[in-house]
Write a structure and sequence with these properties.
Strand content: 15-25%
Number of domains: 2
CATH class of the largest domain: Alpha Beta
CATH superfamily of the largest domain: Vaccinia Virus protein VP39
Bound molecules: S-adenosylmethionine
């Protein structure tokens, strides 16, 4: 078999975290929640808010779109709705577990590919061009230039790219801030350079940012205390091992605490913007 251009290794952590969220909290979708006005951001309300996110996203699919490439499909949360709309859908994710879930959730009604988007070659894959490429919270994982190059190759002339994701809108000017997300200006500039016209640009940050408070709260108030308790047991029972672990992991743990105390909605909204954007290929 030919050597792959990129390996899945870098996205492993992402997929493991997504799986854990699914297993621990029963979270079905792997995207943010869209908390409509008056909806309290709680773990109980998250599934409904994630459904609202999909409902909002579907509004931006242009009329006439029939064939959709769902790039970074997660567990198929959006694909399920695309199938319900009688669209012809191909789902792509690098993680076999997520592809399996996608098949399960869509009742096998989608085509699937287990790979990184960057590795695909339209000629070798035998995929005919799509009317629309969907990147629902997967755009941030794919390098900007490679992503736009692939979008050009997999779309029909005048085809669309629908992106829903967060982007960086301000320089990260202090330690502990999350680096995720492409710089928005650069992403838009590269879209244009690759022959894509921006048709719609909607900022939904205020609706999705509360998800970050839930995320921060879950990590700092649920996950950290579990690890804290495990460390305490090790400290009491195996003081030497504890000393060794502290020496090895102390700095890393401090960094994690700093990182996850900087993940709330306020910090998020200050540095990131969550955008829904529709692009059209010029020709
Ligand atoms: C946050 S999840 C979003 C899932 C789904 N689109 C949704 O909205 O629920 C990100 C997805 O991107 C996928 N992904 C990460 N890196 C990728 C890459 N280089 N090519 C294709 N998919 C990738 C992950 O496996 C995961 O399925």
């Amino acid at each position: 078999m030919a050597e792959k251009k990129h390996s899945h290794k870098k996205s492993y952590y992402n997929d493991i975290a997504l799986r854990l969220g699914h297993q621990l909290f029963g979270v079905e979708h792997l995207h943010y929640g869209y908390f409509e006005k008056g909806k309290k951001p709680t773990m109980q309300n998250l599934p409904a808010a994630q459904d609202a996110y999909v409902r909002n996203l579907l509004k931006y699919i242009p009329a006439g779109v029939k064939r959709v490439f769902d790039v970074g499909c997660g567990s198929g949360g959006v694909a399920v709705h695309l199938v319900k709309k009688k669209l012809d859908v191909t789902c792509l994710a690098p993680d076999p577990y997520l592809i399996e879930k996608t098949l399960e959730n869509t009742g096998g009604k989608v085509g699937t590919i287990t790979d990184l988007y960057e590795n695909l070659n339209p000629e070798e894959s035998g995929l005919s061009p799509y009317d629309m490429i969907l990147m629902s919270e997967s755009c941030q994982y794919i390098k900007v230039v490679e992503g736009w190059e692939q979008n050009r190759r997999f779309l029909k002339p005048k085809g669309y790219v629908l992106v829903a994701d967060f982007f960086r809108i301000k320089e990260l000017d202090r330690p502990g801030l999350s680096k995720s997300g492409h710089p928005l200006d650069y992403f838009l500039e590269q879209a244009e350079q690759h022959g894509f016209k921006l048709k719609k640009k909607v900022d939904i940050t205020k609706f999705v940012a509360p998800t970050m408070d839930l995320y921060q709260e879950t990590i700092t108030e649920k996950i950290f205390p579990v690890f804290g308790a495990i460390f305490e047991i090790v400290q009491r029972r195996y003081p030497l091992i504890y000393k060794l672990l502290r020496w090895m992991l102390g700095k890393k743990i401090e960094k994690l605490h700093l990182k996850y105390s900087n993940q709330g909605s306020e910090v998020f909204s200050n540095y990131k913007a969550y955008m829904v954007m529709l692009f059209q290929k010029a020709s």
